[in-house]
Design brief:
Strand content: over 45%
CATH class: Mainly Beta
Structural class: mainly beta
Strand order of the largest sheet: 2-6-3-5-4-7-1-8
Order of helices and strands: EEEHEEEEHE
Shape: globular
Number of strands: 8
CATH topology: Barwin-like endoglucanases
Largest sheet: 8 strands, mixed
Amino acid sequence: MNIQVLKSKIHRVTVTEADLNYIGSITIDQDLMEASNIIEGEKVQIVNVNNGERLETYVITGKRGAGGICLNGPAARRVAVGDIIIIISYCTLDFEEAKSFKPTLIFPDTATNSLV
């Protein structure tokens, strides 16, 4: 039996941009992606702490060290610049393997979106 479990989480980052006219996705600072073990194109869930919205999209690599978090396309309507979001990815594992799996969790500084 396989189950879905938490793989990676970027806990509480600040939205720096919302671009309605982009094709879609979320752009995440490359430093945050690497620290959280999230790759370009990976499906993620976005949870908006400010308004309770939840959505799924895929990741685009952003400029390293810039702290950028940009919701693109229709997702831009579900956030406002300055909102705090949580970015979550999941993976599918064998039930026994999942019991010992340890997810990657990071807790950036919400003022700068940088790693502390």
